[in-house]
């Protein structure tokens, strides 16, 4: 059943990205995002074996504007690192590493909307699951995909 849901979600995201003629980062985020979100929701961890290649690939998609991509990655990841340092219970280390990589896909003006949207998605997941503690990775991934695709 999980495989069917995974395939359906991936097919839907790819179709939307293709119809909207989205940038290559949207397709990377769709594939990695579905897999990472499922792992994070089930196991509350984001494996480096997936988050680090995603970050590197997202940087490569922004080669013409590599300086801006690195700056966005540092700002977005740094903000998440600050939260992790100040309130370790609020965010895991995997979320911080993921935020550095995802920041590379976003232009600087989109970072604040990404933070707000990812928090809203995380709160929605918490409400749906009726839990106070839920992973933030799915929210980060959904917000970044939406902002790079739509």
Automatic annotation (TrEMBL):
InterPro entries in the record: Prepilin_IV_endopep_pep (IPR000045), Prepilin_peptidase/N-MTase (IPR050882)
Segments forming domain Prepilin type IV endopeptidase peptidase: 27-125
Keywords: Membrane, Transmembrane, Transmembrane helix
Transmembrane spans: 56-79, 99-128
Family: Belongs to the peptidase A24 family.
UniProt-recorded name of the protein: Prepilin type IV endopeptidase peptidase domain-containing protein
Species whose genome carries this gene: Lentzea cavernae
